[in-house]
């Protein structure tokens, strides 16, 4: 009996130049599964979807999932990305994409012929990146620079700074809260990065979080243009390659001196580097992003394929599950539902989305909460027209130069120069040889579970797949309560100090509407009179961010305990 539910969502690409109402994703299929399916089962399912869609005149460009090992292996096998599937040559398919790659692009590992494009969900990559920083088994080190969560703990506990300076809470660095994307956004804020950059001892953590911010900019941020996406994505890749090359060279040199075994050397690399799924996801996403751009440049796909590229992820699946659960009451004891019940709920959601999408034609107007009225700028057709003049080689060169600047303080380049590795081609060729040598991914059905964990000598973490996401425009100080009955005494002022004068995202104003003065405190910040909203005050004074449990059974038990 199947205990799990698997769904496929379909995101269409608009063919209009000016997209004002982008098509919503819809449910393609839902079925019960267990955890015994293999990578080959996943590949066959993808091929079944592709061929049936092709019969209907629909060309499936690619698939996106979280960084689950089986799906990651399936993506590598289908892409022939340091993997081989002798009996399943998807790149030989008559409808496969084919692009022209210059021979001097030694840094590009993807084959020129691909049937599908693949994107690992960037939200999952971001949370995995954060979880590695919080891991108790990791001892991340980038050259001479130490990467540690202690640097953030000291920042939070430092009385020199207030929460107005960094916006962090202790719950943001809680190792048990593994799938909190919103805490990742707070960790990469400009305020936090600025404070870490000012301290030479926290330079490694600053670099690590800077790379995390580049991942968000490349795949999640809606306002990023195509050139910036390519440059940010490949800068992260090049830093990871430099980092891994440095670890390989230093560990080899140390193992020869200390007579270390190969297993000990791999464990040393595992301890100082990011996890294998995180690294492979970063590589795959950067390659597929550039492949997609080249398809558009070579006129095999319309330019509209690059509009809203941030939607190439698996978040619609996560959202559908949350919305389906939301159709139950908050304290309902029905914590699970059957496939039939799920499909019924999905149909209700589909009808609602269809009504919202066509509300202008039907003279319907659904109310929109003021927090969701913020308009996000996305890639416009005018920006896409510049893609023909986009110099890919120059963008890659800029990305590598930026990567060198990022690791300059760590002295990694000095070590690599001793081994005659001093250019982009040298680093890329070295990593290519390691991946090709260590790759044992030939056919998943013949591989054991241990082989997956040992491949490339990089460890992995088993993260939950239920990622908790938040609206990117939601202010960081929003809570679900207010205190309308409190009064304000104009003669009393609370004194606060901060290292900055700009408080974007926090409701602090110089002047307010007198009719709303009951909702504000009058405070003095840096010798200036300000008005602080009471919800923002609650956020400012809280060390931990409390939230309602995602487990309905836990909510029911908690409610019962409170009533007793």
UniProtKB/TrEMBL annotation:
Domain of life assignment: Eukaryota
Protein name according to UniProt: Uncharacterized protein
UniProt organism field: Rotaria magnacalcarata
